[in-house]
Amino acid sequence: MMKVVVQQEDFSLQEEVDLLRQGNSSVGAIVTFTGVVRDLNLDAGVSALELECYPAMVEKTLNTILEQAAERWQVMDATVIHRVGRLAVEDQIVFVGVTSKHRGDAFSACEFIMDFLKTDAPFWKKEHAEDSARWLDARVSDQGAKERWK
């Protein structure tokens, strides 16, 4: 069962991994990625990150990405949780978890999901510093990471 959630609340890594494992003894691999707010970006200090979106639009995009991953690899289950609102440095932003019978499929699917999430999911991100704020554009490196899957 694929799961996509957009929320303000934090999430528990252990709970999410436990849910991915629950009731499926065929799982041979669980791969996860957790994104965290860092204190430095583009050579400037960061004190907070603010994320906005239209949840239904983001959920639709993320579900499509999960479906594409499941078509390419033997994905048994996958979860994407993305937080919105104002997040402090060291707060968790995103969780991607994938289960499969084999580690290669789980690693590839998890990386694919994250690469497409970074470029295709319609989030607006604003970084806050001590005395300023700036909206962030998509990174060229993120687009390059996505291109390698073609």
- What percentage of residues falls in helices of 4 or more residues? 25-40%
Text of the CATH class: Alpha Beta
The run of helices and strands is EHEEEEHEEEHEEH
Beta-strand content: 35-45%
Secondary-structure blueprint of this entry?
Layout: E1 3-7, H1 13-21, E2 29-36, E3 40-41, E4 44-45, E5 48-53, H2 55-72, E6 75-83, E7 85-88, E8 92-100, H3 103-120, E9 123-128, E10 133-136, H4 140-147
Parallel strand pairs: 1-6
Antiparallel strand pairs: 2-8, 3-4, 5-7, 5-9, 6-8, 9-10
Helix pairs in contact: 2-3, 3-4
Polypeptide structure, described:
By secondary structure, the chain is of the alpha+beta class. The protein has a single domain (3-147), classed as Aldehyde Oxidoreductase, domain 3, CATH 3.90.1170.40. The protein is built from four helices and ten strands. It has helices spanning 13-21, 55-72, 103-120, 140-147; strands at residues 3-7, 29-36, 40-41, 44-45, 48-53, 75-83, 85-88, 92-100, 123-128, 133-136. Strands 1-6-8-2 form a four-stranded mixed sheet, with helices on both faces. Helix 2 runs antiparallel to helix 3 and helix 3 (103-120) crosses helix 4 (140-147). It is globular and about 50 Å long. The chain starts with a strand and ends with a helix.
